[in-house]
Amino acid sequence: MLNIKIMCVGKIKENSLKELLNEYEKRISKYAKLEIIELDDEKIPQNASSAIEEQVKAIESQRILERLKKYPGANVILLDLKGRQYSSEEFAQKLDNMQTYGASTIIFVIGGSLGMSKELLDYSNDKVCFSKMTFPHQLIRLFLLEQIFRAFKILNNETYHK
What we know:
44% helix, alpha/beta, five-stranded parallel beta sheet, Alpha/beta knot
């Protein structure tokens, strides 16, 4: 069974969003082993200078890199505005190809609100962009879970609303 990890900076605080996330986690568990790894986010001071923002981004990225190194050989995919955009069918095919020809573990990374360091961007195997629009990280986590679930439905020729 495929191992999927979603590594994210920050925790979900809203109960209604937690319920939705839990529902998708439950649905995905039929197809893959899923683990959500939440890492602490750094507090960003009001009116922070660009130097302070870069420091925050570097600290959060370093936390991610340290955790990623515990999974050697994993396929690391960053959610990044400069990544490739996929249709749901293309995303499903990408998951299928990784499952068939790649590592048994796929790690999707959702960075902090300021983005990711160059070191982290260079560490990844691939980058995916869900939209050129900016969304809160909590919603992106929900979008990612929904698309992973949809991908498994597509790959198993199971009906799912389009």
